[in-house]
Write a structure and sequence with these properties.
Layout (H helix, E strand, L loop, with lengths): L1 H9 L3 H41 L2 E4 L1 H6 L9 H9 L4 E15 L4 E9 L1 H4 L24 E5 H7 L6 E7 L5 E12 L4 H6 E5 H8 L8 E6 L5 H11 L4 E4 H4 L1 H39 L1 H9 L4 H37 L1 E2 L4 H6 L5 E2 L5 H27 L3 H5 L3
Parallel strand pairs: 3-7, 4-6
Antiparallel strand pairs: 1-8, 1-9, 2-3, 2-5, 2-8, 4-7, 5-6, 10-11
């Protein structure tokens, strides 16, 4: 009965109710969709990092994790990779070696990180082939000689193109300065300009020969886990099976990715709290006006025996229904908008340079976990309840005799 009365009461002044509903609707759409865009950018950044930079799990020796020196390698990487690849949860596994070098051309000399890879194995873990356009060369293969693939930013800095030669200078395992000339076989582009500017890839066999590492040596082994398996559970299992190694999941390999994932969840809720807080003041003001306009009516209800608790509940329900109507419409519209833009993407190529400088893709696909909508619904209810307290208390404190006399 009280619900029915409260619902009818909010439509007694249609204009005012529509204004509040539209305000809540716009706040919901703006807040939820903005959160989806921010979250979509963060999710895409993490996916790109896993797909191109860090994979799901990394294995190395503890000293390499601390120092990343050339001398901190381990042998038997091939057999280790074979054992891991036989696991049902393993989608791909690849050993890698890496060193810091100076890249030299007639135009410039810049520091780079050279990564030695086994191309056939690397394709099962990282997706660099999709980052090399049709006119930008080819990915490495297992029979490649002194060839290198580089990022487009590095190619621009060194003023090189396909088939140009770059001389790399570095130290070998014994500490001697050495170097070699490599021909550019491919130029890749990722959404991370720092990666494009600093990382280069060469065949692992060639690199091992140049720095005098054993044939089966590696600094790191990267693992891609099949979808549906828990990365942290697999990490803990590998730690028990390989006690002498440092084994890290993606959020430990690159802590900024883990921080981004956690920070974004907090930021989305904080953003919604700020929006609802602003809406809450408007709702309080509206309900205060409602109580003021209905002073005589509320006084009569109290005079005929309606208890203060029921008057309080009636004002509370009116506020809740008014707010929830706008919020539900806003969440429905937001879900439809996110579904649409999530499939088509939001093209921000006009500001791609700034986005890629921070490591974000120029095309953003808004995304929200369904549980976020449940969290927003709880916040909406709390906002309505808190906003209703002041006007509801004012309604219950009216003196029936004085209220009836109000014109």
């Amino acid at each position: 009965m009280l619900w029915s009365i409260a619902w009818k009461n909010i439509w007694r002044n249609k204009t005012r109710s529509f204004v509040v509903i539209i305000a809540v609707f716009m706040g919901m759409v703006g807040g939820i969709f903005s959160s989806a865009v921010m979250n979509g950018a963060a999710v895409q950044r993490i996916k790109d990092a896993i797909r191109l930079e860090i994979s799901h799990i990394r294995i190395c020796i503890p000293a390499f994790k601390q120092d990343a020196g050339l001398e901190y390698y381990f042998t038997g990487s091939g057999k280790m990779a074979e054992r891991i690849s036989a696991m049902p949860w393993c989608e791909g596994v690849t050993p890698r070696t890496r060193i810091i070098s100076m890249a030299n051309t007639a135009a410039r000399t810049v520091p780079v990180q050279i990564t030695g890879i086994i191309p056939s194995a690397d394709k099962g873990v990282f997706d660099f082939t999709s980052c090399i356009c049709d006119s930008c060369g080819d990915f490495l293969n297992d029979s490649s000689g002194n060839v290198v693939i580089i990022g487009d930013k590095l190619a621009e800095n060194l003023k090189v193109k396909l088939k140009s030669k770059i001389i790399f200078t570095f130290q070998d395992k014994d500490g001697n300065i050495t170097g070699a000339a490599f021909k550019v076989a491919g130029i890749f582009h990722t959404s991370n300009n720092l990666f494009n500017e600093f990382r280069v890839f060469v065949p692992g066999t060639v690199m091992s020969e140049l720095v005098l590492l054993p044939e089966d040596a590696a600094h790191e082994i990267f693992i891609r886990v099949k979808e549906g398996y828990d990365v942290n559970q697999i990490k803990e299992m590998l730690k028990k099976a390989m006690p002498g190694f440092s084994i890290e999941s993606w959020d430990e390999i690159d802590p900024t990715m883990g921080m981004l994932n956690e920070m974004m969840a907090a930021m989305m809720y904080l953003f919604m709290v700020i929006i609802l807080l602003a809406l809450g003041f408007g709702i309080v003001n509206t309900m205060q006006m409602v109580v003021l306009e209905r002073t005589r009516e509320l006084g009569m209800l109290a005079a005929v025996g309606m208890k203060r608790g029921r008057i309080f509940s009636m004002i509370m329900l009116e506020t809740l229904l008014l707010t929830s109507t706008g919020a539900l419409l806003g969440m429905a519209a937001s879900a439809a908008l996110i579904a649409w833009t999530g499939s088509t993407g939001i093209n921000l190529t006009s500001i791609s340079q700034g986005l890629e400088a921070a490591g974000f893709a120029a095309v953003i696909y808004p995304y929200l976990n369904p549980s976020f909508f449940a969290g927003v619904a709880v916040l909406v209810v709390l906002t309505a309840v808190v906003a209703a307290i002041v006007p509801a208390r004012r309604a219950t404190r009216l003196n029936p005799v004085e209220a009836i006399r109000v014109e």
